[in-house]
Amino acid sequence: MNVFIALISALCLLIFYGCSGLAQEQSEVSDEEATTVMNASLRADQDSVPEGTIASFDSPSSLKSSPPVAPVTATNWTDLYHPRYLTGKFTAKDHPDFQVVPKAWTDGDGTYYLHARTIEAFGEMRNAALNDGVRLTIVSAFRNFDRQKAIWEAKWEGRRVLEGKINAALAYPDPADRARAILRYSSMPGTSRHHWGTDLDLNRLTNSYYESGQGLKVYEWLNENAAEYGFCQPYTAKGTQRPNGYEEEKWHWSFTPISSMLTAYAEANLRDTMISGFAGAKSAPQIEVVENYVLGINPECRK
Ligand SMILES: [Zn+2]
């Protein structure tokens, strides 16, 4: 009888350790495989992008140290779920999913691009608004990394003053303070929702316009109807719902069927150290730009 119990015990021990050992081995293999796939996709991407047309993606290795929740599987930079797309390191005219916004919908001040699905939804919303006597005019749309870098560096170096005629280079010698001051209304290159082809600015870039007269009518119409067409205001008034990020922007609207997925992708994959390639980029980790600004939006726009 004792021999029988000893045999059973030995068998149980063998099964227990054998199985857990195997499980450990499998998990090691799958982590390694995931890294290999990720590296291969980034290499494939670097090979396929023509030199000189797009700013390089600076630190793909940072992806390896932070395993994403949703794995990076894109092999093509035109894929939505790719760091290059997320950080705006491409030109809209070279992207197959981007289109020129009809001039009649804009202030006519240049050529505006958006993702084709954003244009389609905005066209329907614009028509509905016109039927209600409200005109929605796009005054800014897609901006790529290089465009945002030009805006940012002009402010960083004091060539362009901030609101209140403040020269940021003189007023804020500390890099983190200077970044926070610019970030009240301007995005750091690589973190702007305008990189995504989903976000646009309407009519006037001042909150006061939307607080009386025709502007108030526009804002009330948007609050009542925009969600029906997939649009949401990401930068609402700061408060318990939205403690961090940019100041309120009543003019900035986002097409959430795409941008909510990109926000989730950013949360899983974008790291402060990946925000680089411009003057003052070292402040990105100091101010935790991804957590506080990229993710510091109206929670309604994440649905
Ligand atoms: Zn905007």
Structure, explained:
The protein has 303 residues and is of the alpha+beta class. The protein has a single domain, classed as Muramoyl-pentapeptide Carboxypeptidase, domain 2 (2-Layer Sandwich), CATH 3.30.1380. It is 44% helix and 6% strand. The strands form 2 sheets. A 4-stranded antiparallel beta sheet has the order 3-4-6-5. A two-stranded antiparallel ribbon has the order 1-2. The longest helix is centred in the N-terminal third of the chain and has 47 residues, at 2-48. The termini are far apart. The chain binds zinc ion.
Task: Categorize the overall geometry.
Answer: globular
Question: Radius of gyration, rounded?
Answer: 24 Å
User: What proportion of the residues is helical, as a percent range?
Assistant: 40-55%
Averaged pLDDT:
82
Structural class label: alpha+beta
Distinct small molecules bound, one entry per kind: zinc ion
Q: Output the strand order for the largest sheet.
A: 3-4-6-5
What composes the largest sheet?
4 strands, antiparallel
Termini, distance in Å?
63 Å
Fold-level CATH name:
Muramoyl-pentapeptide Carboxypeptidase, domain 2
Set out the fold topology.
Elements: H1 2-48, H2 62-65, H3 83-86, E1 98-100, E2 113-115, H4 116-131, E3 138-140, H5 145-156, H6 168-171, H7 175-182, E4 199-202, H8 213-225, E5 231-232, E6 252-255, H9 256-269, H10 283-287, H11 289-294
Antiparallel strand pairs: 1-2, 3-4, 4-6, 5-6
Bound molecules: zinc ion (ZN).
